[in-house]
Amino acid sequence: MSHEDEEEDLISRVYRLILSSGGEGLLQSELWKKLNLTSRDGSRIATKLEKRRLIVREKILQRGRWTYKLMPLVVPIDTSSVEGLPCLTCPYEYKCEPGGQVSPESCQLLERWLLDNYRKYAAGKGDQ
Questions:
Q1: Sign of CA dihedral 94, 100, 105, 108
Q2: Short-list 92, 28, 96, 85, CA closest to 56
Q3: Which residues touch 53 (CB under 8 Å, ≥6 apart)?
Q4: pLDDT of 48-92, one tens digit each?
Q5: 3-72, which class in CATH?
């Protein structure tokens, strides 16, 4: 693997860690510790991600010292919450409206989907 490939791999790993923090962001110093990087190397990678407009470095005061929090600008969309939603393939979707003859309030397919998903969610909460 070339030096450039190794660097791109490291940049990808840093970005994935920042993304995994969600909207909370990650302190620059925490990231360097997780990846065993020097602050110089870590800052260089953060600058590259910032130039690519994938993150923003937010200056914050942490325990009396200035540091940076790395925040993702582009967060992948999670579509799992609407998987299987009957509205997406409903042949009557074009007629569907609140209070109409076809309506979300009276749709049996939507009600069944919601109840099934609630049961799956509730069953998963019991495992924890």
A1: negative
A2: 28
A3: 73, 74
A4: 999 999 999 999 998 898 989 999 987 767 777 788 899 988 998
A5: mainly alpha
